[in-house]
Each structure stands twice: as C-alpha cells, then as structure tokens.
Amino acid sequence: MTEKRLYNFSAGPAVLPVSVLETIRDQMLCLPGCGASILEISHRSKQFIAIQEQTKQRLIRLLKVPATHEVLFLQGGARLQFSMVAMNLLRGFNAPAQYVVTGSWGKYAVGEAKKEGAVEVIYDGSSHGYSQLPKPGEVRVRSDAAYLHLTSNETIQGIQFQEDWQVPCPLVVDCSSDFMYRPLDISKYGIVYACAQKNAGPAGVTVVIIRKDLLDRSSDSLPGYLNYRNHAQEDSMWNTPPTFGIYVMGLVAQWLEETIGGLDAMHRINQEKARLVYEAMDRHPRMYQGHARIRDRSLMNATYKLPNDELENAFLAEAKKLGLDSLKGHRSVGGIRASIYNAMPIEGVQLLVQLMDNFATQHA
User: Fold this and answer.
1) Domains of the chain, with CATH numbers?
2) Known catalytic residue: 238?
3) DSSP state of 255
C-alpha cells in the first residue's frame, strides 16, 4: 500500500520531482545495463563514468557553462566550501577577501574565511535582522581583492539576490538553496558552489563551478582533498565521488531539460509560485508579516510571522491536516517558512494560499 505523499515545504533536504523518485525506485535494484544497483557499482566502471559525464554535460547545457570554467562534484556541502574557497583563493594572497553578509549562511562563511587570511566585511545586514539586501553600487568592491563572496539566497531569512553582479575581482557565490532556479551568467563568476539537497538532488553531493585560471591559486601545501586543482585534474575522482548523489542530480537535470524545458521556463514557474504566496501575505497584512523587504523577497523561501505563537501553532496544525508539511520557520527566526523550490508542484502552493486566505478570514 502506498501512503499518500505530503506537500513537503522542508528547507532541505527538500522535495524532489516525483518522476525522478519513480525512476530511482524502478532502477534501484538493477541499473539498466549494469546488473547491479547504482549503490553497488564501482566509480571507475564505464557505466558510472558515463553517468557522471552525462550529469556534467546536462549542467553545462542548462547553465551554459563556458569553456573557461570547470564543473566539479565534491562532498562536504556548503560548510566545507566556506573553508575550501578561502584555502584555495585567499591563503597566501596579498589582499583581503571581501564578504557581503546578508544572513546566517554568509555569517558562517565569514567565520571560516577568517581562519585563512584577511577578510573585509563590506556589508553586514545584521542591524536590520538580515531583512534586506544591498544593490551592487551600494558596496565598495576592491579590484585587487582576493575575491568577493555572496550568498545568493539566505534560506533562513528568505531574502535573495535575483540578478547577477558584475565586480572587478573574482566573484564567489554560494547558490546552495537556489541552484538552477534561473539562468546564471556563469562568465561573471569565479566560483559558483551549491550543495544539492535543497534544489538539485539529495544530500551528499556538492557542485563547484570554478573558473579554470583560479585553479592556479591552489597551493600544493593544502591537504589533498581540499585542493580544487586535484579534483579538476582527476575529473572529480581524486577520491571516490558521491555516486548516488551524482546519479540523482543527473536525473534532476534531465527533468529540468526535458520536462520543464530549461531554466528560463523553470524561472517563470518559480516566479508564479512565489507571486501566489506573497500576494496572499499582502492581502492579509494584519495576519502575515513578511520578514524580507518586498524587493528582496526570495522566490525559494517565503518567510513570515503571525501575530502571536498561538495563531502560528493553530496555522501549522491546520496545515498538517491538509498535508502541508515542514512549514515551521527556522528556530533562529521563528514564524512560518514555505520553501517552494523547483520541485514543489504549484498545486501545493495553491493549497497553502487557500489555507492562508481561509485562516486570515476565520481569525480576523
């Protein structure tokens, strides 16, 4: 008997396309052409090498990755990238790295970078509770900086940069919670990194897209796994890669290409889902107070509070009855957080909006 699926609004690990889950189910025992499960085959087998290359090529097509950049499949999530970015680009560099801190994850990234060298925080949104973002012209970026680091989408606070920045130094962006939600101009970035479990696959695989000339900065004194150049030279097989995660990411990329129709189409769908939620918030301003400044609202994580804990708990209880799961906000912010990633079907968003309207009317 198959239990009915909930609408999963979890911030991560997060919802995956049902068609992807069905393919995983159908192929789990015996991957076509392998006679074994994806969980069992060697990472050196021709079958897995083909899977990894196909996944890589799908990402290159979807994101239009230029020949100037390399795509790596690593492990350790964004947390490890907070360290690896600084180890590879800041260690031994004669100028500081600059950071724009717009939320909890940017703050964590700064903490790790400071262990490697000089860091300048050129924007810190903590004074207003990380509720708003700067525009590019509002911060002073050094042309000689080791790099500038941004967090494209702050999952906890629900704020998001929705345009590519153009800066005079290497631009590094943590795209963990909005990877492939829209097209990116990869040529403007030195490094784009993203753990997969929010918008591109399961926990366990991290994508790093790095400009090839930056690989020359990686010092031979680094521990082997932490050196980007080693991974690039070994085609992401310096150690055993996260085979299952790469396989699933490939299926998600295939879904984006063949079912959705690419990232422009995905972006339009995401804009529509977010519009529905934010219009419901704005229809009932006495009931739903958004955390983010309107122009900086995230298309991935809609965050808002109700007037008191009693109402929030009642809202969550009603949501649970409707099969709307994991809407409770992060413990550091509270309130409600609706994570409406790529794979969240619009029907789930419509049901949430119906609840928001009905609840506000009933408790007016």
Assistant:
1) 21-260 (3.40.640.10), 262-362 (3.90.1150.10)
2) no
3) I
